[in-house]
UniProtKB/TrEMBL annotation:
InterPro entries: P-loop_NTPase (IPR027417), Polyphosphate_phosphotransfera (IPR016898), PPK2-rel_1 (IPR022300), PPK2-related (IPR022488). This is Polyphosphate:nucleotide phosphotransferase, PPK2 family. GO terms for biological process: polyphosphate metabolic process. Keywords: Kinase, Transferase. The keyword Metal-binding does not apply. PANTHER family: POLYPHOSPHATE:AMP PHOSPHOTRANSFERASE (PTHR34383:SF3), POLYPHOSPHATE:AMP PHOSPHOTRANSFERASE-RELATED (PTHR34383). It comes from the Bacteria. The keyword Kinase applies.
């Protein structure tokens, strides 16, 4: 799927127009074939995870961002279901707590970074600070940043500095062994409407719906603009963004899994070998165990 991966990859240092990216693309793949392929890839990802843990050199940070009802939760649960939970953690970031507001905007995300040999999945992330906060700049005032005591002061230079902070943060992580993959699930406005109606009409899904979802939906154009700028400013070779068509959940899951598979494969992970003196002792240990009554 290398060609598709290039199709989904947001180029570094270039402007982004989300209308140029299909939300319902599925290539030439049939749904059942795609679902079967996903199961095969999940087994491979499980083996890669085991080797990642054994090598204990790299860590992996996977970021999911999207509009409401784009399928982040289901993508995480389906694609990552084959991973060992001992080596993988999922963090869902909501409105910062009072304690989190006592620190800079990256602090709580730094605490959730993966250790070497492990995988962290961030369902929403530090990008909320240039997405929802860009659409609602009044939220920034809660951070009590010196010099920014009114919304009027939160201007273009403020956002430029924040994008730079994010780039530097991710550059530092990458240079110290963290593999970063960022997925924007690109859902259409019409598909979001259908999924919202499904949540309203199905009693078992009512809990997923919030009146705030409708309020934020009314700001769709503002959010698309915020995503376009954030992706353009922060898609780098070290921390690329992938714009995944999300109208068909089965295809979004497949696309994500194939990108992960290729990235893991390119790491050339290897299980470490025992030192020669330990290798020489293995046969003795084996014989002692076999000799036990």
């Amino acid at each position: 799927m290398s060609k598709d991966q290039n199709r989904f990859l947001a180029p570094s240092g270039q402007k982004i127009k989300l209308k140029d990216y299909s939300t319902n693309y599925t290539g030439d793949i049939e749904k059942e074939v795609g679902k079967a392929t996903l199961e095969v890839i999940k087994e491979k990802l499980s083996k890669y995870q085991e080797t990642l843990y054994a090598e204990n050199s790299h860590s992996v940070l996977i970021i999911f961002q999207a509009m409401d009802a784009a399928g982040k939760d289901s993508a995480i649960s389906h694609v990552m279901s084959g991973l060992n939970p001992q080596g993988c953690q999922v963090f869902s970031f909501k409105t910062p707590t009072s304690n989190e507001y006592e620190h800079d905007f990256l602090w709580r995300h730094y605490l959730a970074l993966p250790q070497r040999g492990r995988i962290s999945i961030h369902n929403r992330s530090h990008y909320e600070n240039v997405l929802v906060c860009k659409v609602h700049p009044e939220y920034v005032l809660s951070e009590r940043i010196p010099g920014y005591d009114t919304v009027k002061k939160i201007d273009k230079s403020f956002w430029k500095a924040r994008y730079e902070s994010i780039r530097n943060f991710e550059k530092h992580l990458a240079e110290n062994g963290t593999v970063i993959l960022k997925f924007f699930l690109n859902v259409s406005e019409e598909t979001q409407k259908e999924r919202f109606l499904d949540r309203i009409n199905d009693p078992s899904k009512n809990w997923k719906f919030s009146s705030a979802d409708i309020t934020e939906r009314g700001l769709w154009k503002d959010y698309m603009s915020a995503y376009e700028e954030a992706i353009a400013e922060t898609s780098t070779d070290q921390a690329p963004w992938y714009i995944i068509p999300a109208d068909k959940k089965w295809f979004a899951r497949l696309a994500i899994s194939q990108i992960l598979e290729e990235k893991f494969n390119n790491l050339n992970l290897k299980v470490p070998e025992l030192p020669e003196d330990e290798m020489a002792k293995l046969e003795d240990y084996k014989q002692k165990l076999l000799a036990e009554v």
